[in-house]
Amino acid sequence: MKRSNDIIIFVVGSFLLYFIFSLICIFSEVNFPAIARINLLKDIIQNDTRSINFEHNQNDQGLIPVKIKGVSSKDISLYLRPNLITNFNTDTSKVVLENIVKKLDDLKNNKSTKIRIAFFGDSMIEGDLITQTFRKLLQDKFGGQGVGFVPIMCPSDKFRSTAIVKISNGWQVENFQSSLTSKNLFISGYLFKGQNEWVEIVDHTITDTQINIQKNLFYGYANFPSKVKVNTENINIPAKEVFGKILLNNQRSGGIKISTIDNKLPIYGISFESQSGVFVDNFSYRGISGVELNMIDTALIKMLVLKNSYDLIILQYGVNVLFKPDGKNFNWYAKLLKPVIQKLKNSFGKADILIVSTADRAFRYDGTYKSAVGIDSLVKVQAGIAYENGVAFYNQFATMGGENSMVSWVNSTPKLANKDHIHPNPSGAKILAENFFNAFIKDFNKHPFLSSRQQ
Amino acid sequence: MPSFNIQAFLNEFIYDQKNPLLFNNGFFVFFFTLFIIIYYLFRDKIVTRKYIFCFFSLYFFYKASGSFVLLVIASAIIDFWISRAIFQIRNVTGKFILLLSSIAFNLGMLVFFKYTNFFIQLTNELTSSNFQLLNILLPVGISFYTFENLSYTIDIYRGHLKPARKFSDYLLFLSFFPKLVMGPIVRAQDFLPQINRKIIFSKSDFAYGYYLIISGLFKKLIISDFLTLNYVDIIFDDPTRYTGLENLFAVYGYALVIYFDFSGYSDMAIGIARWLGFHIPDNFLSPYQSENISEFWKRWHISLSSWLKNYLYIPMGGNKKGTFFTYIFGVVFFVFVFITSTQLLHLTYKMAIMLLVILLLFFLLPSLIKKDKKLIPTGFNLLATMVLGGFWHGASWNFIIWGSLHGIGLVVHKAFLVIMEKNNTIVRNYWLIHILKVVFTFHFVCFCWIFFKAENFSLAIDMIYQIIYDFNLAVIVLFVKKYKYVLGMVFFAYFLLSVSKKTHTKFILNFTRFPLICHIAIFFLFIFLYGFFKSSEPILPIYLKF
C-alpha cells in the first residue's frame, strides 16, 4: 500500500488556516455572530469593544406607547414592584381591590354570599393552571366549594384534573376563530350546539361531600324555547334573553350529565358552586392576547352580571403578544387593548378589574435563551393601560423573578417551566398562583374594617 | 483592544462539568492537532506511540468526565489481572470463580452508578419506606467500557482470546479516546491485534476517515442539534399542549434525531480511529431501511446488539434451550405485563388476561407449528435480552417498556416467519411490498421511540393520546407556516435516509478522488455552516447519558 501523508498535512494545514483565520477575526472589525461563534480563540482572547449579545434597553423612552398623565397622588413606577397589586396610588397602605375585599370581609364574617372571580387568560391558565391553586387557597381561607364554570369542551379538557369532562362526538363549536362568529359567543370565547348530544362533567375540587353543589347551566339566546335532559327529566329552557342561567340540580354529588334535545340552543357550560363562598371561573383560550374579548356582546355581559355577577375580573395575557423575538414596540397592542378594558369596565359594573402582566418568556438569541427583548416594554404597556384606565395591576414578570427567570425555571431541578420557554409547568404555575394569592391577601389585609376588628 | 486572558487559557485545560470535551468543542481542535503531530512523529516506534496514545486518551477522558478517569484506570487494572489469572490457572472451578468476580465487579460498578437510585425509588414505592436518594453522578462512558471489560474477560474464560501481553495494551483498548465516551463497543479480539502492528497510512485511509468525520459532524451538529433544539425537545416536554399532528412530527423528528446523533458520533469515532491506524467495524447500516424488526436490530447499534447476542442471549440458551433464568424471567415478565396493563393502562382483569393469552400464543406458536418443544424458550431468551438491553440504556421504566416492545416485536416477527414457512407462502419482493414493509417497520420503531424519549410513562401516553384523539389536520397550514425550517430539515434528513447503499458507496468512491485542497475547502465550508447553526448551549449527545 502506498504511504501517504494526507492525514497529517490536512490536520496541520487546516488547523493553521483555522487558527490564523480566528486571529484575524479577533483583531479585525469582522463582527458576524456566525463567525464569532466558531472562533477557536473566543474563550481565551476577549474583546471588550464587541458584544454579540442583545442588550435590554430599559430606559428606551421612545418605546412607551401609552401616554401617562401625571397625577400627584399616583406613581406609575409602582408597576415595577413584585408581589404587589397596585392602583398606582402612592399611598400603598390602602386597599386596591375595594369591591371584592369588602365582600370577602363580609363572607369571613359569616354572611352568606357568593363572590365570583372571572379569571381570563391564555394558555398560561389552560387546564386550570394557576386558577386551580388560587381557587383552592381562596376557598380554604374564605369558604366555598366548587370549581366554578366549566365549558362543554376546551382543548385542555383531557389534562385538566379539577374537572373531568366527557362529551359525545357531535357537538358543533363556535369560537373566537370561527369564520362566522355568532353574536352570542360567551365570555369564554366559546359556544356549543348539538342535537341529542351529551356532556358529563365531574367536579374534582369538592372536599366536603356533605355540602350541596348547585349545578347551573349557562346558555344563550335562541329563537324558540328549548329543553335539556338531566337524567330522565326534561328541563324547559326559555332562552329568551341574551344570557340565561338555570339550576339543573342542587345535590351533594359533584357530577352531572345533560343531553340536548335540539341544536338551536347555544350552550356555554355548567357551573359548580356551593350555596355560599368564593368561586374562581377559569376562562382560558389558548393563543390569544385578550383583545379578542372585544368580540363579546356588551348586552350579553350585562345580562350575565345580572344573573351571575362577578366581583373581580382578572386578565392574564401577554405571552402571545410577544410572538416576535425582536418585537419591542407594542403600540398596536395598547391601541387594541384599551377599548377592551373600557368595555369590561362598563359592562361588568362594580367589579374590580386587575391586569396581570405577562410572565417571563424567553427566546433564543444567538444560540442562548434569554428573556424576550421586548418584555420590559410590554409590561410597561400593560401597566400604562391599567394606569390610564384606572384599573389595578400586578407584575407577574417581576414576581416570577424578572429578567431571565424563565430560563432559570426551565433549567431548575425540579423543572418549573417547559422547554418552549413560554409555559410554566404545573409546579411553576403553582408558585405563580401562590405568589399571586399572597399579594391578593396582602391587599385584603389592608382592609380598614378588618384592622378595626383585629384591634 | 483584544486581550489574552491567561486565567481562561489555563482553565481550558481543566475539566469543566458544564462543558465536557466532545468532538465538537474548540478545545478538541487543539487537542487533536497536537496529538496527531506527536503520534505521527513516533508512528514507527510502537511502544512510545502506544504510551502517547494512552496518555492523550486518559487526558481526553479527564476533560470529558473529571476524576472518573480513575475509574477507567482502576477497572483496567482489575480486569487485566483477573483475566490473566483466568488464563493462567488450570483449575476449572478457580477459573469460574475468577470470572464471576470480574462479572460482579463490573456489573456491581455499573449497577451502583447507574441503578442505585432507581432501586431506592422502587423500594420506597413498594414498601412505603422513605430512603433518601444518593447523590450519584453517572460516569461518562461507563456503560460502554463495562461491556468491553466483560467481553474481554468472558472471551478469555471461553478460550477465544489470549490476554493482552502488556497492561498498556489493555489500558489503550479500554481508554481509546475516539470510542471511549459513546462507543461503539469494541471487542478486544478485534482491537488488541491492531495496537502493536506497523501502521501505514494510505490515501484511502485519509479519504474514508475524512468522509466519516465530516458526515458525522454534519449529522450530529447540523441535523440532530437543529431538530432537537427547535422542535423535538419542546414537544416531548409537554405533549398535551400540542396537536396530534405536531406530536406525530415530533416522533418522526426524534427518530431522525436519535439516528443522526448517535450514528453521527459513531461515524466520527470510526473516522478518527481510521486516521490513527485502527479499523472499527460499522455501528449502523441504514437501519431505517430495514424490512422487519429482526433486520433492524442487525443494522442498528450493531456493536451493542452483537454484544447482547454473544454475552447474554447465547449464554441464556439462545435459540436452542432454556435456562433457569429463562423461565424465571418469563414468569416475571408476564406478571409485569399484567400489572402494567391493569394499573397503568386501566384494562379490566378480563382484558389483561386476554392480552396475556395472546402474547403467550405468539411465544408458543413456533413450537406448536413445528412441534418442537425446544423452540419455546427462544422467545423468552430473546425478550429477556431486549428488556435487559433496554434497561442498559437507562434506569427507568420507560427503557424497560421500550426493550419489552422490541422484544415482543422480535417474537411476533419470528412467529410470523414460522407461519409463512408452514404455509409455504412466498411473498414476492415487489418494490411496493418492500416499501410497505420498510414503512411498517419504521413506524413500529417510531412508536417505541416515544417511550425511549419521553421523560416518564405518563408523558409517553399523553403523546400517543394526542396523536390518536387530537390529530387536528385543520392546523396543517398553520403548522407548515410555523415550522417551515424544521420541516425543511426533516424532509432533507429523510431524503438522506432514503439514499441507497449503492449510491452511497459510489458517492464515497468519487469523494475519495478529490484533491486535498478540496477536502480543506469542504472542511471550512462545514465550519461556516456550523457557525450558522450553532447554539451556544452545548447539546450533549443522546447516548452520553447511557
Total DSSP E strands of chain A: 20
Secondary structure: helix percent of chain A: 25-40%
In which range does the helix fraction of chain B lie?
over 70%
Uncertain spans of chain B: none
Supply the helix-strand structural class of chain B. mainly alpha
Radius of gyration of chain A: 27 Å
Descriptive key words:
heterodimer; A: 455 residues; Rossmann fold; Jelly Rolls; 3 domains; globular; B: 546 residues; mainly alpha; 23 helices; 73% helix; 0% strand
Structure overview:
- The complex is a heterodimer of chains A (455) and B (546).
- Chain A is of the alpha+beta class and 455 residues long.
- Chain A has 3 domains: 1-52, no CATH class; 64-144 and 278-455, SGNH hydrolase (Rossmann fold, 3-Layer(aba) Sandwich), CATH 3.40.50; 145-275, Jelly Rolls.
- Chain A has 11 helices and 20 strands.
- Chain A has helices spanning 6-27, 33-37, 98-108, 131-142, 298-307, 331-347, 375-389, 396-400, 405-411, 426-444, 448-454, and strands at 45-46, 85-86, 114-121, 148-151, 163-167, 172-175, 190-193, 198-203, 213-220, 226-230, 233-237, 243-251, 255-260, 267-274, 277-284, 312-316, 352-356, 362-365, 368-371, 392-394.
- In chain A, the strands form 5 sheets. Chain A has a 6-stranded mixed sheet with strand order 2-20-17-16-3-15, sandwiched between helices. In chain A, strands 5-8-13-10-11 form a 5-stranded antiparallel sheet, with no helix packed on it.
- Chain A starts with 5 loop residues before the first helix and ends with a helix.
- Chain B is globular, with a radius of gyration of 25 Å.
- The mean pLDDT of chain B is 89.
- Chain B has helices at 6-11, 26-41, 46-65, 69-88, 92-127, 142-158, 167-175, 177-180, 188-195, 203-237, 244-275, 293-299, 302-313, 324-344, 349-370, 376-393, 397-422, 431-453, 457-469, 476-482, 484-498, 501-512, 516-533; one strand spanning 3-4.
- Helices cover 73% and strands 0% of the residues of chain B.
- Chain B has 3 domains: 15-199, no CATH class; 229-303 and 454-546, no CATH class; 316-426, no CATH class.
- Classes of the chains: A alpha+beta (455), B mainly alpha (546).
- At the A-B interface, helix 1, helix 2 and strand 1 of A face strand 1, helix 2, helix 10, helix 19 and helix 23 of B.
